[in-house]
Amino acid sequence: MSDGDVAAFTHLGPTVRDALSERGFSTPTAPQRLAIPPLSAGQNTLVIAPTGSGKTETAMLPVFDHLVDGEGPPEGFGALYVTPLRALNRDMLERLEWWGEYLELEVAVRHGDTTQYERGKQAEDPPDVLITTPETLQAMLTGERLREGLRDVSHVVIDEVHELAASKRGAQLAVGVERLRNLAGEIQRIGLSATVGDPAEVGNFLTGGRPCQIREIDVGSNVDVAVRQPEITEEDEQLAGRLMTEPDTASHVRLIRDLVDEHESTLIFVNTRQTAEALGSRFTELELPIGVHHGSLSKEARIDVEDRFKAGELDGLLCTSSMELGIDVGRVDHVIQYKSPRQVTRLLQRIGRAGHRRDEVSSGTIVTTRPDDTFEALAIARRARAGEVEPAAIHEGSLDVVANQIPGIVQSRGSRHASEVYGTIRRAYPFRDLSEERFRNVVSELHRNRIVWFDEGENRIETSGSTWQYVYANLSMIPDEETYEVHDIASSTQIGTLDERFVVNFARPGEVFVQRGEMWRIAEIDDDEARVKVSPIEDPAGEVPSWIGQEIPVPAAVAGEVGEIRGVAATQLEAGADGAAVGRELAGRYPGDEYTLTEACGQLERQVDADAPMPTADRLVLERRGRTVVLNACFGHMANETLGRILSALLGQRAGSSVALETDPYRIELEVPSSIATSDVLEVLTETDPDHVEAIVELGLKRSDALAFRLAQVSGKFGALKRWQGSGRLSNERLLSALEDTPMYEEAIREVFHEDLAVERASSVLEAIQSGDLEVMCHRGRTAIGQGGRSSGKELLAPENADASVIETVRERIQNDRIILLCTHCTEWKSRTKVKRVRDQPECPECGSTRIAALNPWADEVVDAVRAQKKDDEQERMTERAFRSASLVQSHGKRAVIAMAARGVGPHNAAQIINRHREDESEFYRDVLSKEREYARTQSFWD
């Protein structure tokens, strides 16, 4: 052991050093060598190091040392360990219990699921170290006995601090720690994180701008990432048949399977829960030992797969972002990322889960599916190696957090002078610039809503009759959202759920989205029942999903590097090189194999071969076919969304009608009225004042459902609405009008701009276009790159015949449906019965005729028309329909009855189904279902 290795542990007292020897910790890890000295000296410290490198022990060994070798443990809580996830609480308890037992310190957990008995014990006899969540800390600050215990806190450790810094939960926690300081005095603050793009800023967030030591391990230098798009093999062709999918999708599944086989324990990260389920179903079909883990699963299901993976029963775990954080699932030796991780931070968090138990390199593979995906993954992988991480987007001055904290402060401390409350909130870093005027506006709003009492004359804030109830109903800044059930309109089966945010922001009848690996078109939205009725897309190849779930936004820097790659490639392609040669050249600078890079460059080659200009970091390409206009722009999600809104608003204003908008990190796609010329689009880009961007976007937001939804959530935190239960679409306009000049409206606008838009970046793009620094070129018709976003999210879509369970459901429903059988020969016999009771060849018991019409159970007026034989136009149509039905039944028996019992399927459609002569019963029902879905989609035109 070198002197440097020994030095870190020499900062600890003899009791903790004995524990280290007992535990077998002979050599400190890299973060321990760097961080234990300042931590032992009591300094505020931010520790940045890969997951699994011993960050927890790095933080806690000096804390334990202070508690045992100083003056001894206090009567109250000695240290708080705050984690963003309850699952992390469980892991931390398991990791720290041994140390607590050896050092005779009590370590306990407290969160929403902690029993009342345990809570009572903790209040009476506080543990020395308490592991908790940001929300539970809020509750603890209001309890009288718990507040007494909190007076002794000397250390606060915040785990995954980067995750909290970029959220309103973090802004709330920052104020909570300042409230804790009011009780306990100065506290040592310790932050732990795997990746941070701006350590100084996150350090300020942690400490409230006080001095902070930053101890960072270069994460990127310990990461080995390969980007691979699989080549389709003969096995993939066979696998596609077994999985009922396309060969390219089968190749993705096969490559992931092979990578899992090559390693002992693999985490497979995907970007959405839907993708997790779709991929998981493929692995289940192949009977592979790969589990699925995401936030929509029950706690028991998540713990079960975590334990099975840790025990080696599962070779792989398919997971979403929840597994980025340090949940302990044992040793991971490889990480697969399916499709681009979208951000450098995400990649480092995810790949960082592999290795590091013995300071190993973290190895990972990004499996890509199309050119955008590949170039983006290459840029992210290079940036990760170079340590070019995105900064944390701290919520600056969230007024709903201010509204949330004021009642908490007066509930816990009683009547307070407004300046004292203001001072506490201002000490938290996200609120350092909060003006007194804004603060007083928030207090006045809370007073109007009777959440607190504000005595303006005395300048004091006091509790009201509603304060206690408000505080305990609003411990969390995570908004309450209703969940909408998604039902197939034809089979009535539930296919999944959607978050209310997506329904309000995106869902409209006719829109297309992805769920369960399939594409669906919305037929109807029932807000009262919280239900979305949908029909599946029969031919996904021609469809663009309107939305695919909450996409992780691609930053401008990553999109810009994709543009740079295109620019370099274009120069070589225009000089006569082919895609393979360009791919080989890129392979020298980026971590992709030759096949993957050649495949991606094929798109660029097609662009050049068609004499279409190449969209790059310095060039925008405007293309048009018919009413579809695409501005190819490599500026990332948020800047493109902002530019898209400007174009949509100003072009819509010119045309006097709305302009549809779709954006991704590389394209802004508009559906414009035919009166809009390409020159109009160029004019908006070249003549819109960059200083007016914010005002134009805000004007466009003013009547949007998206803003109304945010406003309703924010208003809930001000007590202006009861606990949020849905915006109620009809009231959105009234809601926006009523609250326009309030701090709630100001905060809702700020939140939309912070989370979804990039006003400064969009303004600078317009400035660059107008100064000539950015070139805009036009192209008539669609280009290879312009259409490249249209395949996004469809790689895992199941073909129409994939779900046998839906077909079985349809069969059972139709068999149990009731129909009317009517003899059209004698017209006397009529029977109301279930389809399953109909004979193979129905005949009339009165006259023996086989000319039996099969009619809907509510079609008594048709029976009357047949019997009356009147020549009224309407009755004549009904009679003719009955005779055509009877003719089909006479020729085809029960099969005709089944077809005509389906929803919206009359004799004409039934004849089309029957004339396909399906021998396989499932295929016959699939044809029936297809006609039902066609009816569902066009029903509004017929009703």
Describe the structure.
The chain is an alpha/beta fold. The protein has six domains: 3-217, P-loop containing nucleotide triphosphate hydrolases (Rossmann fold); 222-385, P-loop containing nucleotide triphosphate hydrolases (Rossmann fold); 399-465, Winged helix-like DNA-binding domain superfamily/Winged helix DNA-binding domain (Arc Repressor Mutant, subunit A, Orthogonal Bundle); 483-542, no CATH class; 611-783, no CATH class; 804-942, no CATH class. The protein is 48% helix and 15% strand. The chain contains 38 helices and 29 strands. The strands form six sheets. It has a seven-stranded parallel β-sheet, sandwiched between helices. A hairpin with a 2-residue loop joins strand 19 and strand 20 (518-526). It is globular and about 105 Å long. The protein starts with a helix and ends with a helix. The relative contact order is 0.07. Mean pLDDT is 87; it is low at 723-730 and 798-802.
Provide a quick synopsis of the model.
Keywords: ATP-binding, DNA damage, DNA repair, DNA-binding, Helicase, Hydrolase, Isomerase, Nucleotide-binding. By secondary structure, the chain is α/β, with parallel strands linked by helices.
